[in-house]
Amino acid sequence: MTIPEMQMVQLGPQGPTVPALGIGTWAWGDSLFWNYGDDYGAPEVEAAFEAAIAAGITFFDTAEVYGLGKSETLLGQFCQACDRPVQLATKFGPAPWRWSADAVHEAVTASLKRLQKPSITLYQVHWPFTFFLSQDTLLNALAAEVKQGRIEAIGVSNYSTAQMVEAQEILDRQGIPLAVNQVQYSLLHRNIERNGILRHAQQAGITILAYSPLAQGLLTGKYSRDRTPSGPRRWDSRFNPDGLARIAPVLDLLHRYGDEYGKTPAQVALNWLIAQTGVIPIPGAKNARQAEQNAGALGWQLTEEAIAQLDQVTRPWLGE
Question: Fewest CB within 10 angstroms: 89, 262, 294, 307, which?
């Protein structure tokens, strides 16, 4: 399958063009939160990779901290066995012991080695707290990596509006645009519409990568009083009976539109995000079935009325 031209999105004002939906790979290799190695492992996530590629989804988001490098390593192995171009995004963690431009260069080198790639499509700063490494030093070091051809585009993650503006100003002095801000965004987490992040991003041409676009599974409709998730999510109040009762009207509407369009609730929720200007959801996929389900959000479009109805029913989550 080839993603139609209308289903492609450019990363920032001058960045590469990628499918309108990507795959997040936090769960690939992570045994702390996602129980990798317990009920799923390398064969399952490789099947997820292959299913995504077969559906035309060639954009994958990872980070050096996911599985302490395991996610990057798995992606690198899968890409080597793939005969199609694959676009990879990863992230740099500005930890306290990283305080120089050399540390940035070394991190990029390590990620390239694990990914087995000569360059990275999108390299992001994982969080805005840089400790002893100033934003100037960090972003100028990344600009140098772009000029060396090891990074195609620069992004940030979890940055506020003011922090995005600061990053833009630093990069502008190097003649390089800020391409992306990766933030949490879903029908059940719409903060960026209220705090100015989405508005500024759209005005500046900065792409939003929406992580946790299915609210860690809540929007799939598969959890109930009798079926709760494993791992740390089992203690999340959103998954207890009261939390599930609160989102019942949202799930009812997702099911209604799912029936109307022949789609699942998750596909409807992802399609709502795709309909927002300059937003790319990056849902996770631990197996082929989940990757195929994610791909089903592409190739069709909710009506303006349906988008408005979903907007209305999830207004209580504008500030959460």
Answer: 262
